[in-house]
Amino acid sequence: MAVVDKKSAGTIAFKVSAYVFCALLTVMSLLPFIIMIVNSTRSSVQIQQHAISIIPSKYLFSNFEVLKDKDMFSPIRGFVNSIIISTGSTICNIYFSTMTAFALVAYDWKLRKPFFTFIMAILMIPAQLTSIGFYQFMYSIGMNNNFLALILPSIAAPTTVFFMRQYMIPSLPMEILQSARIDGASEFRIFNQIALPMMKPAMATQAIFSFVGSWNNLMLPSILLTKNNLYTMPMMVQLLTGDTYKTEYGAVYLGLLLTVIPLLLVYFLLSKYIIAGVALGGVKG
User: Rounded to whole angstroms, what are the CA distances from 143 to 82, 83, 212, 232?
Assistant: First the structure.
């Protein structure tokens, strides 16, 4: 009985430690968002005196008025521009990367392994190294100040191709694809009506990463977009920190909060597919 009690006590202690550790991680993860939300309700003087606080203040509408008074800051226009770029980029990224991964998994062709090796080699090249050449190419073909210059390159996404390929290898049954071919289904119909529905959890996961990456992208839009009416939301928030005489930190935090809200909505919309995929994987295991 004493041995059993010691084991039970050890199990309880381990569970309590695990719960405490998870609670600390949760608090650490949520604390930056809480500080951002609280600071969006505070004045610049309060933020400068006490940068960290969890007690909201009364300057939310004042900070919003500051944003409205900014000549170049237009949250509605920034939202629309960012949504167009991020949505188009995410759709191109997910669909064509999944199609590429499908070609690497479902077909046996001679250059399949060298092609995948080439994709992995591109994955190792930092985007910053190619930004100057990319800008020169876009400028030479007249694609600067054009959203397509930020949307179309997402068709080639090595990270998404790698992730989708690794997900397809154990999850895509070749027998179903072969049966569809015997029944006379075309390859595009097999991909769109059979493969894509099976890939929903992986596509949802990558869609979140792609949308967040495109939405938060500041370097390439700053290089390619020079007209004020084409500015994305991160570019407009960046303008708030460039005032000559005074930076309204409360307004800056409010602008950051407005920038984060669409990312949270995208996550909540797609999280159910991720949870379903994890549950399905657990049942298969």
Answer: 17, 19, 23, 17
